[in-house]
Amino acid sequence: MTVLGAAGFAAVGWTSADAGGTHTGARSEPTKRAEAGAESDPGSARPTAGVRTTPPRSSASSSASSSVGSSDRPSQPDIPSTGPGTFASASGGSDTVGKGNALRYRVDVENGLDLSAADVAEQVEDILGDRRGWTADGHSAFRRVPGGTTDFVVRVATPGTVDKICGQYGLNTGGEVNCSVGQNVMVNLKRWLLATPVYAKDVTAYRALIINHEVGHFLSHGHVGCPGKGQPAPAMMQQIKGMNGCVPNVWPYDEKGRYLTGPAV
Prior knowledge:
Elements: E1 32-34, E2 87-89, E3 97-98, E4 102-110, H1 117-129, E5 141-144, E6 152-157, H2 159-167, E7 179-181, E8 184-188, H3 189-194, H4 203-218
Parallel strand pairs: 4-5, 4-6, 6-8
Antiparallel strand pairs: 1-7, 2-4, 3-5, 7-8
Helix pairs in contact: 1-4
């Protein structure tokens, strides 16, 4: 089955406590992680051929579906630089996926965006529920809720709003990248719509890496490097900084349930 690719955002501003690479099931204090700055020469990266969206699965959630797919997204989408900083939450919820005590999460979209919170929530559910995702570790589980008590919140927001929220934790996202701070998994609208040059032809795939990478940080997974030329890039690799010989991949685990990792960074 073809590996789904989606370049992940790099995290900066880590404290020494952020170096842990295993999920403990709980965090003693809010950790703060953000992607590294955008590539200095975006045009230098070449789109990768053969990168597909999620292969079919037996479950109802068969793909990381997208309301703005790679084939129909506008070439120059209107991306406001900032927004009101208020959010609309996706209604409804999902069944629990994975084993263990389920982490409750909510999906928000900043008000004023031409983006459906319900569509974003559906994509996030598919990503977190994929058999190659974090549930493959055997102890991580997720359940989407519309409100109330949550363990974390996935928020798609304008670059300015992402900068503001991430900046409250001392992180500089530069209007370009995402971060995972406290209970907030902040997704920069620019990256959600445009991906990066490596994934420009499969934005849906890139969205999977955004979620897997940033939720991976929430689960206390640290950054790793490329394990070797021609091997799948780990989801926790800072792929936006370069592939370093690895091939695109968005999933923490492969089809055989093996964790895809590399040397600690």
